[in-house]
Structures are given as C-alpha cells and as structure tokens.
Automatic annotation (TrEMBL):
Protein name per its UniProtKB record: DNA topoisomerase 1
Domain Topo IA-type catalytic positions: 130-593
Sites marked Interaction with DNA: 31, 140-141, 144, 156, 296, 525
Entry-linked InterPro entries: Topo_IA, Topo_IA_2, Topo_IA_AS, Topo_IA_cen, Topo_IA_cen_sub1, Topo_IA_cen_sub2, Topo_IA_cen_sub3, Topo_IA_core_domain
All residue ranges annotated as the Toprim domain in the record: 1-114
Keywords: DNA-binding, Isomerase, Magnesium, Metal-binding, Topoisomerase, Zinc, Zinc-finger
Subunit structure: Monomer.
Location of the active site: 294
Length: 892
C-alpha cells in the first residue's frame, strides 16, 4: 500500500483514520537531517555546498519508512504546508532516494486543515516538491549557519561570557536593549490637567476637562507647574459656565481580521499570559487534532466555504441582525503569495468552545480565542454614538469639554474585542441629556473622596494658594468642585512577547514560524529575562548588543535584516537565485569578520565601557565623579572581565583595592567589594570578593593562621546589605541543633556545595531556605531527616489538632513529634510546655509559643564557642578536598 509520510505521530494517527486501510501513514518526527554543528558544514569556497547529517534519533524513523517502501514504491510526502514543511519533504526524498527504485512514484500533497474533506481533496491533487520554496529554506539555513558559526567564535574570543550570536536573534535582542536604553535616558516631564464636576439644570452630573484658558487652546504642557494649575483652578471656579454646543456623531467599529501567526501570539500573550512558544505548542496540538487550520501563516483570508459556515454559525447562535448583508473579505498581508496560506480558524465553525472535548487547559483557552476571533471577523459592525459637549464662560476665558460614548448596537463586540497593550485613552463614559445653551453648575464636594485618598500618601503636597487645598499630586478649590491633577510623562514601556512580535512584524524581521524560537532562544541564553511578562535585558545581553553594533553594525541593522528577509521571499517566489544571494552576503560579511581579527579584549572592553557609560556610571546624588572608586577614593572604575566569564565593574587600583560590583544591581542597590564589617571576639570580620564570588573572613592571613575562617555569601543574599551579625552567623556554621532524641548523636545545620542542609552522623538532608539554617529546631530537623530517609514520599503525619489560621496566613497545627507534641506554623515548630496538654492548647497560647520561637536569636553567645570549634575542625579536614576538587575542575 502507498506510504504517506507526515511530521508527527499524532497527525499520522488522525490521517490514517481518514484514509482507511488503503494507505500506510508514518511519521518523520520533524526534520530528519541537519547541518552538523561544526566548521565546514557550509562551504563558501565550494559554491556554498552543504553537508547534511541524519540525526541519530531519525535513523529508526527513516528505517521504518524504507521498510514500508519495500512493499510499495509509492511515496506521498504530506508534511506541513509551509517553507519548513517543504524542506522536510525535500530532506526525506534525499534521504530515502537509495531505497527508491527507478520509476518510483513520489508525490507531494498539502492540506491546510486535518479534516477528512481537506485530506481527501489533497490526495486527489498531488504535486511535485516546490523547489523555489526549498531554495529559500536552503538560503535561510545557510545564512543562519554562516552567521552563527563565524560570529559566535568572535564573541567567545573578544567578549568572555558571551554565548552566541544569530542572524535574527541578535537583531531581536537589540530591539530589547535599545528600548531599555531609551527608558534609562528618559527624563520625566511634569504637567497638570484641570477637571470640573458639572450638573445640568435637572441635577444630572457629568465631568469635563479644561481645554482652553485665557481664550487660547491648552496644549499638554501648558500647565507645567502647580502654581499655573492653581491659577487655572481659580479661573474655572470663579466663573459661570454655559453649554455652547452639543455634537452627537454616529460611529462604527469594524471587527478585526481572523488570526495569522503573529496576531495569535500577540493576543495569547495579552489575554492568556502565554509566551510565544507555549502558544505555538498548544496551537500545534489543536491543529494535529483536526480542530484548527494550520497555525503558521502570514495570511488572513478565509476559504469561501469557511466564510459561509461562519455566517451560518453566527445566524444560529446570535440571530440574523448580527450577520452583515455581505461576507467580509480581508486582504492578505503576505508579501509572498506562495506562503499566503489561509488564516488560523476552527475547522468546524459550529463547534463552539463550550462543546469542545479537550482536557488540556491551554488548548481549551486558545481554541476559545481562535473561535471567537474567527466568528467575530464575520459579524456585523458595532454602532455607537459619540457625543462632544463644549462648555465655556461668558467671557470665553475658560473652555471645558465633556465627551462620552453610547453603544447603540454591540455587533461583533458581543463576542470579541481585541486586547490592548496600553490604554488608548478612548472616552467611553456615558453622558446625561445635555442641551445647548443650558447652564453648567459646578458641583461641590465632587472630589472630596479623591482628596482624602491622596492625603494618605506620604508624598509631599504642592503649596496651595488661598481658597484652595492640596494633597499629593492634587489641588482643589475650597468647594472641591474643580480639581487639578499632576501628571508626569512616562518612558516607553518594556516589550512584552506580544509587543516584541508586533514590532518585529512591523520591521519585517523574521517570519511567523521563527518568532517563538527567537524569543525563546534569547531567554534560554540568559540575554533577556522575563519579569511580570516584560522582557528585560541582562548585562550579558547588553554587552553582546553593544559589541555587535560597534563592530558588526550592518548585521544588527533593522533595515538590512528586513531586506534580507525580502530577498528570501523573492527566492521562494523563484525571482532570485539563492546562491547568488549568499555570495553577495558572504563577500561583505567575511570582510567584517577579518576586521576584528586583530582586536584585543581590552580594546573591546574600552569601547563597550564608553558606550555603556551612562548606564554603568549614573550621576551620584552628591554630584561627585561617578567613576571614582567609592572604597579607596583614588582609583577609577572601569569594565573588567571575570576569569569564569562575564564582566563586572572594578577599581583600577587592583590588587591594592579590591572593590567590585556587578554591572547592574537590582533595584538600584550597589554591591561593594572589600570592607570591614566590624569586630567579633577581637577578630576583624571583613567582606571580600574572590574568584568564586563574595565571601566573609574572620581575621587576616598570618604565618600562624595562613587560612583564616571563610564563608561564601549564600545565593540570594545581597553583599551590599550584609552586616556584622549575619557575617558572624555564617562564620559560625555548621550550627549545632542538638542531640537526636533516638541515638543522642549531634544534629548540625550548615551550608554546603549543594545549599543549606541538616546533618545527622553521615546523613544529610537539604533545606529549602538558607535562613532556616539559623532557626531550625529539633522537631523540624528530625522531620526533615526522616523525610529524606524515606525519600520524601511518605505520607505527612496527620495533625493532632487544627487551631485555625495564623494572622499572617497559614494554618496552625498541633503535631505529635518524636519526643512530644509541638505547635507547627509554616517552618516554625514550637515545643509544647509539659504543663500544657495538646487538647487544651488555645490559639492565643499557640501564637505566643510561635512568636517566642521565631523571635529567638540564631547566634547565641553561649553556643558561639562550640559553634566555632565545630566549624574549625571540619574546615581543617576539608581543605585538601576542596583543593583537589578545584584542580579537577580546572583540568575539566
């Protein structure tokens, strides 16, 4: 029987069901060949010859296909209907050619949806592999290889700590870094707006904003200070007002077009909080289940039969009035018609989300989004009425405006409205019936509640003139009928995955199938981190971007990258020869590579140091030179590289001054280098920085004590805020907890190579929190050790009693410990006094026991000598082990 090859086993199962027993459907599991990750896989000197290698995991899949072809030499390649899918079919044919006899029938079929109708129709209309599409893939793959495998080694040699560079990923990273530098360079500008609460003669209230003063139109920054705002408030409050015009204009809002790949990723990010990768993964599973059309597309057009199905679904679910007189047609935005597939839509318009039989939450939510967007795209427009009311004083010295909007017919908004990344400022307030010529009376006490809330803030209030009162960012007249609000211009927002994809699409950088992998790659390489859905560049991401813009400006240029994408589209259309495009690119790119061969690391660092100076050395509050070392006061700060990779800021007086700090410190905190924290038992306790990071040390190295006690700063602790007490605690580790109730052997708590732990004899158990090392008691220690002994899979012991919730959250329980009952809350375990029975314990008593336990100082003076002695003995024994392990690491 003919052999049909698709990409995934899920798709194979669905298609085999549609085709029946006349075909054998097998999966290739994606690409079967790729370029080996080594030099020479693409040879520019041999007309860009490419050496392909079958992946180890793909050999068994290819063998299964070859074995099936022994019975029937009819091969049908049914991979995805895009450039990547065409490439997979080409690779399969190349890899399977030895198994194909002369005259074997090889066909290519594509379908935009995995439905019986679509698959049957595709099988009835086979074609040959589209070579221009394959050529475009070959060009893209060769370009990415040549950039990655030639530019990345330059980064490794000239910028220690950098991981890699990519043709599109580096441009995407530059977008994020450029935006961050815009934010840092941004200077906020103050301005004020004036508002009044007015009433009609009938008593209906509405809000209006001051739009003209002294007969002139007010622009945004015409009230830059509180003083000018106060004058405007007085001008409004002291005048009679009348409505000069009422204009009501009808308006319509048309629905958004159905989804293509980029808009789906943007909406999934906005509305569902899905990253691009998660969105495409869920969409892939929906596609393979036959629920939606192909999810990698530039197209927004819809098949005629799908349009009619959508109109039928709208009519059945919402009624005739929601169906427009004629179908809506959307113009395809794809530049290359060969890749202009249909939009992303449900395969069955009548399958509403509430009838979907899918258990995965992400797939259900994404299908709901796709169904609503598709249905809405064919619905009637929303109709509304927008009203603008102009109010002025008789002398025309002040003018105010009130705006409102009333939805007369919801139309497509009944189903769907696109999310926004930022407020567009559209005024949708409802206005009462207002007539031209009527009086507009100021309403007293209108802003009292807002004023009371502003008074609660600690921010200083502006000076208020006579007849007015002030709070933080707010001025009112004495009757609270007129208010002035303070505003500051805001920096451009950081990119989300949605806005980044949108910007890349606007610039023509990348293509739908690449967006998710690009955004994921720059996060995986720690060039960018995501915080509250916003993308923030890491220091190493900044360094890479500055390096590339300094020495390879053309190849991180937005225009150049977009032009190259256009050339790839022209190749896929058959208008350009792919090897000629590669030849032109390589000629210039190889020259740029040669230009960096003589660069020294110090030159690179100096150039980056200069470019990043505003970020690295922000102005000091005292007006001093930001480059002067804050420790020695003589050296100057500059960018340095660490032996272990990465970069930091250090003093030029090294090694006399060992001041260092990271390039960026969180929340403006500055991590400092060597300093004395204080004295303990006559020993100076100092904070130092070594090759493996910051540490604390007791005393100084002498002939009698060549290896003074040291302790590394735990991960999560900020060296800048470290004080003497915490340093002494670290140096006193391991800390004795007490003798085990069963065998009397000492239990200790400490911090080791693998983090915080408790130790009983030769048995160790990890602790989740570093701070618990200094507070853990016997009950908790025995519990952790017992859980480790049973690999943490034993059922938790049932509490004797549930006392309720702690005021700070979390349940308070009475537990039965190994040596008596105790109260448990979070990580605090407090032993019950002997005279208190578990069944008689009150919540108040429990709270007192918990507070007493949590408030105990972890560093007891009486226990300190024992702790020191315990710390010194193991330190002497472990020293050789540490040295040998360090040697092994160096060899590796």
């Amino acid at each position: 029987m003919p052999v049909v090859v698709v990409e995934s086993p899920a798709k194979a199962k669905t298609i085999e069901k549609y085709l029946g027993g006349d075909y054998r459907v097998l999966a290739s599991f994606g690409h079967v060949r790729d370029l080996p990750p080594k030099d020479g896989s693409v040879d520019p000197n041999d007309d860009f010859a490419m050496k392909w290698e079958v992946a180890a995991d793909s050999r068994k899949h290819l063998k299964a296909i070859k074995d099936a072809l022994k019975d029937d030499q009819t091969l049908i390649l049914a991979t995805d209907p895009d450039r990547e899918g065409e490439a997979i079919s080409w690779h399969l044919l190349e890899a399977l050619s030895p198994a194909l006899k002369k005259g074997a029938a090889v066909n290519r079929v594509t379908f935009n949806a995995i439905t019986k109708t679509a698959v049957t129709e595709a099988m009835a209309n086979p074609r040959q592999i589209d070579q221009p599409l394959v050529d475009a893939y070959l060009a893209r793959r060769a370009l990415d290889y040549l950039v990655g495998f030639n530019l990345s080694p330059v980064l490794w040699r000239k910028l220690p700590g950098a991981k890699s560079a990519g043709r599109v990923q580096s441009v995407c990273l530059r977008l994020i870094v450029d935006r961050e530098m815009e934010i840092e360079a941004f200077k906020a500008r103050e301005y004020w707006s004036v508002h009044a609460r007015l009433a009609t003669p009938g008593g209906a209230e509405y809000d209006a904003t001051l739009v003209s003063l002294a007969g002139a139109k007010l622009d945004r920054f015409d009230l830059p200070t509180a003083e000018k705002a106060a004058m405007a408030v007085s001008a409004v409050a002291s005048r009679d007002l009348r409505v000069t015009s009422v204009a009501a204009k009808p308006a319509t809002r048309n629905p958004w077009p159905p989804f293509m790949t980029s808009t789906l990723q943007q909406e999934a990010s906005r509305k569902l909080g899905m990253g691009a990768k998660a969105c495409m993964s869920a969409a892939q599973r929906l596609y393979e289940a036959g629920l939606i059309t192909y999810m990698r597309t530039d197209g927004i057009d819809m098949a005629p039969e799908a349009v009619h199905a959508a109109r039928d679904a709208i009519r059945a679910k919402f009624g005739d009035k929601y169906v427009p007189a004629s179908p809506r047609m959307y113009k395809n935005k794809a530049k290359n018609a060969q890749e202009a597939h249909e939009c992303i839509r449900p395969t069955d318009m009548m399958l509403s989300p509430d009838r979907l039989k899918v258990t995965a939450d992400d797939q259900r939510k994404l299908y709901d989004l796709i169904w609503k967007r598709t249905i809405a795209s064919q619905m009637e427009a929303a109709r509304m009425e927008r009203t603008t009311v102009e109010i002025a004083s008789p002398d025309n010295q002040v003018g105010l405006r009130a705006t409102g909007q009333v939805i007369l017919f919801d139309g497509f908004l009944r189903v769907y409205d696109q999310g926004r990344d930022d407020d567009d400022g559209e005024d949708s307030a409802r206005l009462p019936a207002i007539q031209q010529g009527e009086t507009a009376t100021l309403v007293g006490k209108a802003f009292d509640a807002e004023f009371a809330k502003a008074r609660e803030k600690d921010d200083p209030a502006p000076a208020a003139p006579a007849g007015q009162r002030a709070a933080s960012g707010l001025l009112l007249n004495d009757t609270a009928a007129v208010a002035a609000r303070q505003h500051f211009t805001q920096p451009p927002p950081r990119y989300t995955e949605a806005t980044l994809v949108k910007r890349m699409e606007e610039l023509g950088i990348g293509r739908p199938s690449t967006y998710a992998s690009i955004v994921t790659t720059i996060q995986d390489r720690e060039y960018v981190r995501k915080d509250k859905n916003r993308l923030i560049p890491e220091d190493k991401g900044r360094l890479v971007t500055i390096f590339l813009t300094k020495y390879f400006p053309r190849y991180v240029s937005y225009d150049f990258t977009a032009d190259l994408e256009n050339e790839l589209d022209e190749i896929s259309a058959g208008d350009l020869v792919w090897r000629e495009v590669l030849g032109r690119f390589w000629k210039d790119f190889s020259k740029a590579l040669e230009g960096t061969s003589e660069l020294r690391i110090t030159e690179v660092l100096d150039a980056i140091d200069e470019a990043l100076a505003p970020h690295l050395y922000p102005p000091r509050a005292d007006g001093g030179d930001p480059r002067v070392c804050p420790v020695c006061g003589a050296g100057r700060l500059n960018l340095k590289t660490a032996r272990s990779g990465g970069a930091f800021i250090g003093c030029t007086n090294y090694p006399e001054c060992r001041y260092t700090r990271p390039i960026s410190a969180p929340d403006g905190e500055e991590a400092v280098g060597d300093r004395i924290l204080g004295e303990d038992n006559g020993d100076p306790i100092s904070l130092k920085t070594g090759r493996f990071g910051p540490y604390v040390q007791r005393g100084e190295a002498t002939e009698d004590n060549p290896k003074p006690a040291r302790a590394s700063i735990p991960k999560g602790w900020n060296p800048a805020t470290l004080d003497l007490e915490k340093a002494v605690q670290l140096l006193s580790l391991p800390r004795p907890v007490g003798n085990h109730p069963e065998d009397g052997e000492l239990i200790e708590a400490g911090i080791g190579r693998f983090g915080p732990y408790v130790k009983h004899g030769s048995k160790y158990a990890n602790l989740l929190d570093v701070d618990e090392v200094f507070t853990i008691g016997m009950n908790r220690a025995v519990e952790v050790l017992a859980a480790k002994q049973t690999r943490g899979r034993a059922a938790a012991a049932a509490p004797l009693r549930e006392l309720g919730d702690h005021p700070d959250g979390g349940a308070i329980q009475v537990m039965n410990g190994r040596y008596g009952p105790y109260v448990k809350w979070e990580k605090v375990n407090a032993t019950l006094p002997r005279d208190v029975a578990p069944e008689e314990l009150t919540v108040e008593q429990a709270l007192e026991l918990i507070a007493a336990k949590a408030g105990k100082s972890p560093a007891k003076k009486k226990a300190a000598p024992k702790a020191k002695a315990a710390a010194k003995k193991p330190a002497a024994k472990k020293a050789p082990t540490q040295k040998s392990s360090a040697k092994k690491a160096a060899k590796g």
